[in-house]
Each structure stands twice: as structure tokens, then as C-alpha cells.
Predict the 3D structure of the following.
Amino acid sequence: MDTSLVLYNSLNGKKETFKPIIPNNVGMYVCGPTVYSKVHLGNCRTFISFDLIFRYLQHLGYNVRYVRNITDAGHLENDADEGEDRIAKKARLESIEPMEVVQRYTVDFRNTMAQFNALVPSIEPTATGHILEQIELIKDIIKKEYAYEVNGSVYFDVIKFNKDIPYGKLSGRNIKDLIHNTRSLEGQSDKKNPQDFALWKKAEPLHILRWPSPWSDGFPGWHLECTAMSTKYLGTQFDIHGGGMDLKFPHHECEIAQAESIHKKSQSIACNNTSPANIWMHANMLTLNGNKMAKSTGNNILPAEMFSGENSLFKKSFSPMVVRFFMLQAHYRSIVDLSESALVASEKGFQRLIQGLSKIDTLPIGDKSTGFDLNLWQNKCYAAMNDDFNSPLLIAHLFDAVKYINSLANGLQKINKTDLNKLSKLMNSFFFDVLGLLNT
Ligand code: AMP
Ligand code: ZN
């Protein structure tokens, strides 16, 4: 059986055979939610995609350290360092403590992921728990002369950095185009160039989430927390960094620049991958009515609204497992549109699989097996998942097995005891362990 796992690396746009830095061990960092509101189904899709990846890596026998952070400070309303802190704003609007906002939506996020039967990551660090680490990183970047301080805030100098190490390698954005296309934002006169991004922001008098630092009482930039936490728990070079496609730029691009600036990895280093992660993986977007599901536009649906049926979009409710199955019926790199007809089809398919599974133990045992090449089928299932986690293809193979199970139940084919045990074990392991589905 071919067990080599091939992954699509967003960094070079190629599929690569996966070779972990430390044999049998995988370090994976995934950007977690900003806990200022309930997660919508789009957010959930990204985390379910990485849950599939986490599960399959473990299924292959890897010892995985999966780090997924909780962003509880530093994420401003606008990705260009503009606006209020999302959590502080929610706290202001609801007249509650910022940490009450954080608690409420962290709990909501964890409960929601549990409803989807997502495994708990190995570590779930918070940005506010790593302020000291972030301050140390900023000192380091200043020492390497890729950051400058202005009026108590510290900015990363993208133009200077780009002279030594190319910026834009993940998103494919060229610095000249960036210079051309980035508008100068009002109130950002502190920045030397509009492409620069904040490492530390001096807090305005009314800004609640603030910490002392050598530069001012303030707060860290959003991109910095992920560099601090991935480095702390996975080291300066680790295997996989993931997140939703919309985080590629600026968030992940800035993470790469921060890490490279600290380690001053230059082009002359033999390895052509100077990024902190060997492989970058991006889960594609869930859309609704053809547009990205997003909190800001109101084009979204909450998991609870879907499960209860209390929403204006769909005529009926759908269970967490049907929604999970619907998501896994698409490849994690494809865009998926949420529609009633697609969900109804998934519900039928899911029930067909459950019925197939429930029949396995009642099948008659024959003296020999006929009509199905079990080894070939097993190889096809693994080949699907080894090809960049192709869950829709795996599910198609599971449906083939259900057809066989039905023909066994009808007496049209036969299966011997050894093959039946093997079929049962594989079906259960793909359904429950790898796809993370439950029989509900
Ligand atoms: P946020 O809480 O906004 O930082 O988002 C949490 C995660 O959800 C990030 O990895 C985003 O890329 C992801 N995300 C946001 N919108 C969608 C969507 N419509 N489909 C899939 N993932 C999304
Ligand atoms: Zn991140």
C-alpha cells in the first residue's frame, strides 16, 4: 500500500511528499478564532478542515502537536492596523469586561467545535497569555533593524526588509504593486510607508486592553501573536502552518516576514524555504448565495441556527453531523456554497452510509468472497487521503463499499470471515476516526 502523504504547499503552489522535520512527529499551527462573536459556519469549515488533517495525520501514526491559538487581543477592526480592538469594541457596546467577551465566545467556540466532533488541539494558547514573548520578539526585530519606533508604537519596516529578504512570497504580491495599491490611511502618519504593519501600538487613553512595554502602554499587533506562539510551542522551524485562505495576506505574509527578520534568513541560505513553516496550508471559503460567508457583511448563518432550524435561509434543520459530512464532501481547497439542495443531498448520503455501517455486523458469512476487491478498495481509500486529504474521493469509495454491503445483505455477493472483519474495521475507522463522523 502506498503510504506516502502528499500535501499541497501554498508557499510554492506545488504538491510535495510530506517529510516531517522530526521523523514520526508533526508540528502544526493553525490560526484560531478572534473571540469577539459567535463563530459562523464559514469559520467552522476552516476548523473542520484542519480537524480532518489532524485526524488523518494521527491515523497514519504521526505524533502530532496541534497548536491552535485563541485571539483575545490585538485584532483590530481593519487588517491595516485601523480601528478599535474587536474585543474591546464588543465590551464597550455591551458594557461588559473584555475578558467577559473573551470567555463567552471562547466557550461558544469550544462547544460548537465539540458539536461538530472536532478533536481538541494539543495546545490552545491565547494572545494575552503571551505578551512577554511578543515584546521580546519586537526587541529582537528592532535589534535586527527591521522595525522602528514612532510615538510609542513600533512598526515593521516592509521596504527595508524587502531589500534583504523578498516580501510577498506566500501571497505572490510584489512589493512594487503593494506600494502602488496600498492607500495611505488617515491617522497612520506614524508609519514610514503604508505597507508597514504594527508590531506594537500605543494605546489611546480609552483603550482598555493595554500592557506596559519599553515603548508605551499598549498592545501587540495581530500578526505577532502567531509568530510568538508558534515559535514558543513548535520552534523556529516547524512542519505545517494553516488557516483560512483569507489569512494568506496580510496575516500569514507578515508572520513570515517577522520570523525571517528575527532569524535573518537570507536568500543565500541553501534551503529555498526560509519561511518558519515548511508547508503552508489554506482551507478554502464557505460561501452563501455565492458570496463569502462573513461576519462583517451579515452574509452568514450560525451553527445553532442551522441545527435548530430557526433561520430564514432553510426550510428545515440540519444536524451537526450532516453539516460536517456536507463540508467533508468537498475538498478543503475548493470553495463550497451552502444551499438547501446540497444539504438535503448530504443528509441522504450520510444516512445511506450509516445504514450501510449498521448492516455490517448482520451480514451472512460465506466460504469465499466475491464481487469486490477489498485490497484494491483499501488502497484507493488511502490513495485518496494521501493525495492532499481528498475526503470527497474517500467518501465516494465509502459509498462503493456500501453498495457492496447491500449486495451482501441481499445475497447477491459473498464475503468470508477475514474479509468481513477487515471491511468492518476499515469502514468504521474511515467513518469515525478519519472523517470524525458520529452515528447520530
Ligand atoms: P477570525 O475569527 O475572523 O480570525 O476567523 C477564524 C477563521 O475562520 C480564519 O481561519 C478564517 O480564515 C476563517 N474563515 C472566515 N470566514 C470564512 C469562510 N467564509 N469560510 C471558511 N473559513 C472562513
Ligand atoms: Zn495567525
